[in-house]
């Protein structure tokens, strides 16, 4: 954990040395030109936090750093022409990395990671022009994957998988433009299929089946446009009586 804390500090410091016009800090700060445009190095108090960085013609440029009221580093973010462009790091009050994300033209673009306490990944999501696009992963506290889904233009698109804490698949769903489409499967914690249902554009359409944990078929039938049709079968499985 100490190494992780040190790495965060090292990254923040190294970023701060990729400056605009060498970003040398001296006694000259908070200057406005004859047009009242902010120029050069500034320190601003916003919502009880100190923000430090550079302006060019009233637009933030380069690396900006934000500090908690206790003067601990809270955020490091890159700007270009007044917009967020590049890496943003957020650090919690204990010194652990909380958020790592990338921006392009002031929109999330690329990989974004939210960390749980102790800097363990909790949610990993890819973005494109501000919308979820690509792989998303959610993790359990033990580090194993809880959910793995794919997005396109901000909506679930393709396969989505859910896992139990032992790493076994408990749900396998398919989406098109954010709606169920295709065969959706649910499993018990032993990996046994317990439900299979067909959807089309978010509506039940096709075969539907349920099984008990022993693999016995208990319900089967068909849907059309969200309504049950045809003959449905319901099997009652006899329970074994306890031996005297």
What this model shows, in words?
The protein is mainly beta and 244 residues long. It has 2 domains: 1-98, no CATH class; 130-235, Histone H3 K4-specific methyltransferase SET7/9 N-terminal domain (Single Sheet), CATH 2.20.110. It has 1 helix and 20 strands.
List keywords for this structure.
disordered N terminus; mainly beta; 2 domains; 20-stranded antiparallel sheet; 20 strands; single chain; elongated; 244 residues
CA radius of gyration is 27 Å
Largest sheet report:
20 strands, antiparallel
Query: What percentage of amino acids are in beta strands?
Result: over 45%
Average of the residue pLDDT scores: 90
Which fold name is given in CATH as the topology of the largest domain?
A: Histone H3 K4-specific methyltransferase SET7/9 N-terminal domain
Which residue ranges are poorly predicted, with pLDDT under 50 across at least 5 consecutive positions? 1-6, 13-24
Number of domains: 2
How does CATH name the architecture of the largest domain?
Single Sheet
Number of strands: 20
Please trace the helix and strand order, writing H or E for each element.
HEEEEEEEEEEEEEEEEEEEE
CATH top level of the largest domain is Mainly Beta
The N- and C-terminal alpha carbons lie at a distance of 57 Å
| General form | elongated
- Share of helix, binned: under 10%
Oligomerization: single chain
- Please count the helical segments: 1
